[in-house]
Amino acid sequence: MDAARLGRMRNPIIVALDLPTGRAALDLATRLAPHVGAVKVGKELFTAAGPEVVRALRAAGLEVFLDLKFHDIPNTVAGAVRSAVALDVRMLTVHAGGGSAMLRAAESAARTAAAERGTEPPLVLGVTVLTSMDADALREVGVAAEPAAQVQRLAALAVDAGLRGLVCSPQELSWLRRVLPAGVQLVTPGIRPANAAADDQKRVMTPEAAREQGADWLVIGRPITAAPDPVAAARAISQSLR
Ligand code: C5P
């Protein structure tokens, strides 16, 4: 890996490009590139702009986190992961609730497809319980466990299936760090600098606190993308983490 790429990867900020068009995403991402470690392409942008926007972001030298939260039969998820590897993404997400066979198929497809291309496999990140699901919402879909217990169960399932990373909320960081093997990468949204609005996030944490509690990567959207000066906002957060 070249030095510039390594340098960017040490910046733990992943900016969420929750924007409606490829043009807007690419313009903003290009301006933010010196101040962030990666960009996140989620369902809104990918559904609007497709793989082309991922190729354009890679061509602009940005690391890409493809957050499409795959959840399907193992064969289909393996195919989706192979397609993501062909796009040269650094990370991607799968729902841990898809079960161990699906998780193993995802990790194995990432490794095999990357080996065929001669590249590093992307981090396949397990998503446990969506933070929008509370105990009542879990019961509605037949899960009697409390959210924290379900997070722990799915985190263990994902790691046992070979996944090397998880998405988790800031509140889950410190106890997941205690129960998970060292080296599992934790990627955390719900991050707000001390002076930023919480927006619709119910429980937030500052970038510094999240890093202290064990987050490897911080997913940050509106505090950067909706700031009056997004470049200044990203620069300030990255400086606060040095
Ligand atoms: O704008 P904001 O910083 O809230 O964006 C956070 C990003 O992280 C969004 O792309 C959102 O979909 C994602 N996310 C989240 N909470 C989760 C999982 C993902 O906010 N539990």
What would your notes on this structure say?
The protein has 242 residues and is an alpha/beta fold. It has a single domain, classed as Aldolase class I (TIM Barrel, Alpha-Beta Barrel). The chain is 48% helix and 15% strand. The protein is built from 11 helices and 8 strands. It has helices at residues 3-10, 22-32, 43-59, 74-86, 100-117, 135-140, 147-160, 173-179, 207-212, 222-225, 230-240; strands at residues 13-16, 38-41, 64-70, 91-95, 123-127, 165-167, 185-188, 217-220. Strands 1-2-3-4-5-6-7-8 form an 8-stranded parallel barrel, surrounded by 5 helices. Helix 2 (22-32) crosses helix 3 and helix 4 packs parallel to helix 5 (100-117). The relative contact order is 0.14. The model is unreliable at 1-9 (pLDDT under 50). Bound molecules: cytidine-5'-monophosphate (C5P). Residues 16, 18, 42, 130-131, 169, 189-190, 199, 201, 219-223 line the site of cytidine-5'-monophosphate.
Total tally of structural domains: 1
Tally of strands:
8
The chain-level mean pLDDT equals: 95
CATH domain fold name = TIM Barrel
Name given to the CATH homologous superfamily: Aldolase class I
- Spans with pLDDT under 50 lasting ≥5 residues? 1-9
